[in-house]
Amino acid sequence: MKKTKSNFSNCHHGGIYSVKDSKVVKIDFSSSINPLGISKNVVKSLIKNINLSYIYPDPNCIDLKKDILKYLDCNIDEIDNIITGNGATELIHYFSSAFVRKKVMIPSPTFCEYELASKRNNAKIIYSQVKNDFQIDSEFIVKNGNNPNNEITTVFLCNPNNPTGKDSIKQISEILEKIDGKITILLDESFVEFVNSKDEKRYNHFVNLVKEYDNLVILRSMTKTCGLAGLRVGYAISNKKTIEKMSSKIISWNVNGLAQIAARVALRDKRYLKSAKKIIETERKKIFSVLKKNNKIKPVATDVNFYLIEILGNKSSTELTNTLLSKNNLLVRDCKTFTGMNDKFIRVAIKTPRENKELFRALEKAL
Amino acid sequence: MKKTKSNFSNCHHGGIYSVKDSKVVKIDFSSSINPLGISKNVVKSLIKNINLSYIYPDPNCIDLKKDILKYLDCNIDEIDNIITGNGATELIHYFSSAFVRKKVMIPSPTFCEYELASKRNNAKIIYSQVKNDFQIDSEFIVKNGNNPNNEITTVFLCNPNNPTGKDSIKQISEILEKIDGKITILLDESFVEFVNSKDEKRYNHFVNLVKEYDNLVILRSMTKTCGLAGLRVGYAISNKKTIEKMSSKIISWNVNGLAQIAARVALRDKRYLKSAKKIIETERKKIFSVLKKNNKIKPVATDVNFYLIEILGNKSSTELTNTLLSKNNLLVRDCKTFTGMNDKFIRVAIKTPRENKELFRALEKAL
Fold first, then answer.
1. Global ipTM
2. A118 neighbors A106 (Cβ within 8 angstroms)
């Protein structure tokens, strides 16, 4: 990949509404959400409670926060350590409004909302290009963060990183240990629950460090983990003072009533998340063994539920994306619009075996 | 009422979650929403579409905006004149972020979000106390707005005003005509659709003026009109440049997928809104003839679906509110927390005949 050149104008997202006619999309591989869709328990509970749409939702999401604590089962035990949002995205903006000042540091490539939120708060951005193995460059981040001339107030980290799919647990730990404690860190763990970890403690690793590092904010997305993209629920965990600062930016009734209900049921439905993880794990292996055989592309090994495909021939990512859509009604993410990427990568979500097979067949023909 | 003294610290809202134990509320008269609750057509459509909760919603709400245009049937014909929000409240904050600078003018009493949003943008507030007949003081607003020393950038108007219930169409027209065109005006018409108007054009009166007044932004709330409080949908109408400025503050996917579906169905369900208006109209008359007979209180004539009750005896609004809740499980809005009001007023929503009767009986005993 080329070195980072900021061509940021606005956030480009995937999803069926990123194409002109949303109805032409048969399978959406551009949205990296739970391959199982919404859980049946959530559907049942929503149907049962639909009449509550009439009532103003709890503006403080007390019951939801209690259920998040139970779900996390970590060393945090008070709801004052949690803020809930209209999707994790809303919380990125609250965080930025509270903590972004002069300059920020953002890995490149990564989720575009960090750039958008920083720009809205008039901050200059120092990009930290990922290394050749797509891992976060912790050395660069620590060095530049600790240089007082850089006036860095905030660092954004996405782990595992979107769109590279890499879990950089070592690098992030190093950053936390070595970076100036005055620099606030947003660690977006939207995809962490899809990591194939034999050690269940992995999921709480950084959450448990919130007590140790006052400058750490952990972000989680139920949109992705629980397939609630249409309902919008995310949450962040940090020390009470930081949560209070973020909460001072909140819009009244930001998390809607049905979203609160769905989220509470989803958090209890551990079997559903386990099934999704099993599919992702099995499919991850299969996908790589299949795609490696095609010498026109190179799949990038991933730790999560999406992966990059590098296009080795002359075709651009836009050409390939357009062909897959027009000929097969399959939508993948053209990575050209990620700051620090080029037009030789597409991002693909891991979906059900049947759906993934359909993509393999389409790719064979399109390349 | 006393002259305005700003005691604003944070927004206090009504609703069942404003009390310690939400379960003790049998009927919520503190939320001024459609007395019929959510329409049956909306419920049906939500049940049918619940599986779509899995999909990211349209971030631009294109179809919803088209339906809003159809519903309004006014002289505005492009979706670029509309912005949709996670409730009207979110749009108050986008508006403020885009237009509030040094100083703003806000009627008193009124909906607290204007104060909150102004404070968040570091503006000083000049309050314009409503007159003795509870009408907006247009003369004060024009005079102070046009005085360059005041450096007013923005005026917030709520019409009909919450919590006074008065439709100040003449006064607002006068403000629009006479105030400096550089001052941006947010005209919150969240309750306008509940006004008993024989002239259907009333509802579009100010919307149609958006073409004439570049400084005018109209705000509407589907939360209140269509009983979608739990789903959160609001919209604003203005010239394209203003809408673009407000949109530059938007959070990605701010209006959730089920909310978009519900709103589209609700906009077409004109029979439901008509029925609600009929109930409100009939009950409005009944309520006043009943309450006037009680010499311990004085109901304030209203134009909308809620009304003030002035307490004439020694009892405070907090005492009365607490008695109604603890003895009858009925929640009314204690108006003490409105800037510019005192502890002698409660605000009550007009609900169904059976529910209103229950309040009459409880009031008799509680006073």
1. 0.95
2. yes
In tens, the pLDDT along A216-245 reads 999 999 999 999 999 999 999 999 999 999
Q: Across the interface, which of A53, A59, A113 has its CB nearest the CB of B262?
A: A53
Distance of CA A274 to the CA centre of its chain: 19
Residues of A whose CB is below 8 A from B256: 86, 230-232, 256, 258-259
DSSP E strand stretches across chain A? 27-28, 82-85, 103-108, 124-129, 152-158, 184-188, 216-221, 234-237, 297-299, 306-311, 330-331, 333-334, 345-349
Question: What whole-number distance in Å separates Cα of residue B188 and Cα of residue B209?
Answer: 14
Closest CA to A96 of A109, A114, A81, A84: A114
What is chain B's mean pLDDT, rounded? 95
Domain residue ranges of chain B, discontinuous segments joined by +: 16-37+271-366, 40-269
Q: What does B219-260 look like in DSSP terms, one character per residue?
A: EEEHHHHTT-TTT--EEEE--HHHHHHHHTTPPTT-S-HHHH
Pairing of strands B234-237, B184-188: unpaired
Are B153 and B102 in contact by the 8 Å Cβ rule? The answer is yes
Subunit contact B50:A43, Cβ cutoff 8 A: yes
CATH topology assigned to domain B40-269: Aspartate Aminotransferase; domain 2 (3.40.640)
Residue A200's pLDDT is: 85
Alpha-carbon span B201 to B161, nearest angstrom: 19
Is the domain defined by A16-37+271-366 classed in CATH 2.130.10.10?
no
pLDDT in tens, A190-218: 999 999 888 888 999 999 999 999 999 99
Residue B57: is the preceding peptide bond cis (ω within 30°)?
A: no
Binary contact (A52, B87; C-beta < 8 A):
no
Mutate to test the interface with B, among A54, A121, A244 (most CBs of B within 10 A): A54
